[in-house]
Amino acid sequence: MAETVTPTSEPAAKEWYPRTLDLTALRQNEATKANPYGPDFDYAKEFASLDLDAVKADIRKVLTTPQPWWPADYGHYGPFFIRMAWHSAGTYRTGDGRGGSDGGELRFEPLNSWPDNVNLDKARRLVWPIKQKYGRKLSWGDLMILTGNVAMEDMGFKTLGFAGGRVDAWQPDLVFWGPETKLLDDKRRDGKGNLKGPLGATQMGLIYVNPEGPNGVPDPLAAAADIRRAFGAMAMTDEETAALIAGGHTFGKAHGAHKPEECVGNDPGQGKIEQQGLGWANKCGKGNAEDTVTSGLEGAWSANPIAFTTQYLDNLYGFEWVKTKSPAGATQWIPKDPAAANLVPDAHRPDVRHAPIMFTTDIAMREDPGFRKITLGWKKNPQAFSDAFARAWFKLTHRDMGPQARYLGKDAPKVTMTWQDPLPKASYAPVDAADVAALKGSILSSGLTTAELVRAAWASASTFRATDMRGGANGARVRLAPQKDWAVNDPAELAKVTAKLEEIRLGFNKAAKGGKQVSLADLIVLGGNAAIEQAAKAAGHDVSVPFTPGRVDATQAQTEVESFNYLQPKADAFRNYYAADSFYGPTEALVDKADMLGLTVPETTVLLGGMRALGANAGGSKAGVFTDRPGTLSNDFFVNLLSMDTVWAKSATPGLYEGKDRASGTPKWTATPVDLVFGSNSELRAVAEVYASDDAKAKFVTDFVAAWTKVMNADRF
């Protein structure tokens, strides 16, 4: 057979030119091309036709129908499926909204091959017949979470409910999971031990923390600190964190019957083609059942691992715990009292019994003063524990779905929680076209400038994150803490703009007939739209920026300040803003921001060029404003950027570049890296050339308006 050549996984250009800005994340935002159901597929409509009770009945049947190729512990797959749901949702991190169960990303590399997800490939295969039965009506993302919920309910726990609406992805999301090149390494902390940037897990390949303790060191107090870091990165409080650990470990067992290095094969991502996506083949004993190897820890926390009981807390405080080693060599804890040695039945062998176990992270619940106070309180009040776990589990499994408006199905709870970023319901009639025209006139005659109006609208809408559907213009939270005080928003100017718009709002609402009212949220967006129409007219183009009223104004009580602070941009290339403590470099931050807004490469290009033409930089900076007529919606940014009449060099000011006339040497422009990258990067330059062309003036305006409208409406669900 002739020798074959295997292509590398990365394009040669990236290997040869590693400094080239990677725009893959923005190309992925053209998602409809990857969806086999086609561009018109409406998952919400399909889900609405689903008989949810029938699905749950099918899941309950699977729970207690053991399969010989992967037998169920204690005859019930419930704990296994809870782990699948937990690890599907548990990658969520509030720093950038990435991760979580939306998209069903647990199916793809690298998540499907992480050491923390060992054997969850089997869990997905166990529920594949259900996915196969319901097809397009039930996404993998929804199925994995629903299966975990039904499992809990089948084992006696009352959940808060279930909301559908997770739309499956068709390729792995591009997420920076950490700087490490080796699984389970930890090179992600600053000098104080805190996790850098948006990262949530404490080691590469873990969902949260190492159950044996930080980097395997069995120190309960150090483990408690790591637990707070990791769960805090999911916006979980101490109470929610303790509830998840104590509630989750009420069920099931850990698996470490043998040393993994002696028994377990490659993960799915490294598996052979004939393995068909299954990994971690175990050659020891039966290869499953009592010979299963997953985490390397071995044992159950309670004597009844397929029922919701208080035994986890009873055992945690009822025994003195001592360190021991699992058969796999992992550090865990067992009761010092030898009388406890036979409390727990074996998961598969009726004649074998064991002592209960705890992880180092469980002992942390007892040894850390804060967690101890919480868990001791629950020991005295089991109903409070049950309620706390129900709420924490719902938050864990729904945190990345965004507001309640996106929830689907009859089982979605009606209760509203502040972490859902709630909005009030409008109690008035919306404005009509005539009102909109009158309001635009009032705004444009208010004395506010084009740049001020555009900056305010952008500040309001651009907080949106397509990663977890948070932020956006609806609610007008830009006028509330913390957003009103963010440096990127020019607080003094923003206060002036919102005060003037509020004056217009009050005047209109007082005079309006027929129960009509306008919200400040709508006026902020309308102000930006009106300014853009005026700027386009100055460039010789009559355009109407689409506007759909109906936004409402949130209150401060509906806004968690700490939670919303995670939306604060440390860099916003569209406003040419970059803070020194930004996790990413300027051009990488450009891609990150555009990706979170759901923008494509052309949309990113035209938006940034238009914002420069409008003079909408933060703080009124002139960097990148390559025009002598700022406030006019022209393609001057692209024309002047690509002109060979300008020579660029680094400025004496760090982070800035100076453009001089090639012939005379006279200074002409200043720029930042995010300006010049549209001329230096070959892909971005290709798009910039389109907008710099003589025949592109109208197209530039039209495309800018479309991209602007996309951002303004991103949170209209």
CATH-assigned fold name of the largest domain: Peroxidase, domain 2
Order of strands, main sheet, comes to 9-10-11
Number of separate structural domains: 3
Top-tier CATH class of the largest domain: Mainly Alpha
The major beta sheet can be summarized as:
3 strands, antiparallel
Count of distinct strands: 11
Strand content: 5-15%
Q: How far apart lie the N and C ends?
A: 57 Å
Radius of gyration: 28 Å
Q: Helix share of residues? A: 25-40%
Q: Which stretches of 5+ consecutive residues score pLDDT under 50?
A: 1-9
Q: Give the count of helical stretches.
A: 25
CATH architectural arrangement of the largest domain: Orthogonal Bundle
Structural class by helix and strand composition: mainly alpha
The whole-number mean of residue pLDDT values reads 96
What is the topological layout?
Layout: H1 12-16, H2 24-27, H3 43-48, H4 52-63, H5 78-89, H6 120-134, H7 140-154, H8 220-232, H9 238-248, E1 253-254, H10 260-263, E2 299-300, H11 311-318, E3 321-325, E4 331-335, E5 344-345, E6 353-354, H12 360-367, H13 369-380, H14 382-398, H15 433-444, H16 450-461, H17 491-511, H18 520-538, H19 561-565, E7 571-572, E8 577-578, H20 586-596, H21 601-613, H22 636-641, E9 646-650, E10 657-661, E11 667-671, H23 673-680, H24 682-692, H25 697-712
Antiparallel strand pairs: 1-2, 3-4, 5-6, 7-8, 9-10, 10-11
